[in-house]
Amino acid sequence: MPARRSEGVWLHDEHGDKYLDALAGVAVNGLGHAHPKLARALCEQAGRLIHTSNLYRIPEQERLAERLCALSGLERVFFCNSGAEANEAAIKIARLHGHNRGIENPAIVVMEKSFHGRTLATLSATGSRKVQAGFEPLVTGFVRVPFGDAEAVARLGEHHKNIVAVLVEPYQGEGGVNIPQAGYLAELRRICDANQWLLMLDEVQSGIGRTGAWFAFQHSDVMPDVMTLAKGLGSGVPIGACLARGVAAEAFTPGKHGSTFGGGPLACTAALTTLKVIEEEGLLDNAERVGAFIRQDLAERLRGVAGVREIRGQGLMIGIELDRPCGDLVKRALDKKLLINVTADSVVRLLPPLILNREEAALLTAPLAELIREFLG
C-alpha cells in the first residue's frame, strides 16, 4: 500500500482507496497527516533557512529547548535526529556521571522486553534477543532485570557497586504496551536517590502527548534526571532530544558530544509547531478521552472471546494481547483498509494520531474487533 496523499487520520493509495491510520508512523504522526499549520510552518521555514551549523546560535533551537524544559521541568536539552541517538546521549551521560564519581566501569540497569534503538549501544541495552542476534559482541555495561520489578532493582544496589543509572521506558512500547503497577516509577526514583544513580526515562514512544500527558512520567509524582524524546516530537520530521537536570545536565561539556544535523532550524520549527498545535487543539485531553473510548469499546466488543488475554494502555498507546502469535492480523487489517501493528508476537498495538476523534475511533474499533474475532475463531 504505497501512500500517495494524506489528510488527517487517512492515507490514500495510488488507486484512490483510503486507509485509517491507527499506527501514525509508529507513534510519529501525532498531528495526523498534512496538518495545515505544520505544512505552512515548514514551507515558510524552508523558504528562510533549512540548515546552518550549530557552532552558531540557532534561534529555533533555543526556543524549542526553552519550551521543552518548561513543559518537563528539566533544565538542558541536547538535540539529535532520532530516538536511538537520544538514548545514546543518555548512555554517555550515565557513563560520564559514573566516571565523575570515580567508578571505572559504570553499569546501567535496563529492563527485560525493553527497546531503546538499533545502534550498537542501544540494541545492547534493549531486552530483545531478536533485535540483538547477529550483532555480537554486544556493548557491555548493562545489567538486566524484569520490567515492573522495583525490588529486583533494589537488590542490585546491594551487590553491584558499579551501577550508575537506571534506564527504563515508563510504558514499554515494542515490548508489548506493558504498563507497570502504580508506584513503580516512584519506587525507582527512591532507589536511585538512595544509591546516587540517575533515573533515565526513555519517552521516545510515550512522550509528546501519546499517553494523554506531555510525558508519561507526569502521570506519577516523579521527576527523572534524564529523559529522551523523538518520534512524535517532529510530526514526521526527524528530530530527537535528550533532556537532563542536576548533575546529569552538567555531564556534557564542550567537545564531549555533538551532532551535525541535530537541532536544525527546519526540524526545530516542526517540533515547535507540533507542541503549539497539541496545546491549541487540546490534543492531550483528546488522547485521554479517545483512548479510553477505544479500550472500553474493544473490551465490550471482545467480551467473552476466548484468546483475548488483556486490553491495556494509557491514552492513545494501546495493546490488545492475544494468546497466540498474531502477526497475520497486520495483512488482514490492511485488506480492511486499517493500518495496525503487531509487536511482541501476540500484541496488537494501536498508536493512532492524537487528532483521532470518537467517530473515527469507532471506524477503527468495529472492524478491528471483527478481525480479531475471526482470527481467534
Topology of this structure?
Layout: E1 3-7, E2 10-13, E3 18-21, H1 24-27, H2 36-48, H3 59-72, E4 76-80, H4 83-100, E5 107-111, H5 120-125, H6 129-132, E6 142-145, H7 150-159, E7 163-168, H8 184-195, E8 198-202, E9 226-229, E10 240-244, H9 246-249, H10 265-280, H11 283-301, E11 308-314, E12 317-322, H12 328-335, E13 338-339, E14 341-343, E15 347-350, H13 358-376
Parallel strand pairs: 3-13, 5-6, 5-7, 7-8, 8-9
Antiparallel strand pairs: 1-2, 2-3, 4-10, 9-10, 11-12, 12-15, 14-15
Key terms for this structure?
single chain; 377 residues; alpha/beta; Aspartate Aminotransferase, domain 1; Aspartate Aminotransferase, domain 2; 2 domains; 7-stranded mixed sheet; 4-stranded mixed sheet; 13 helices; 39% helix; globular
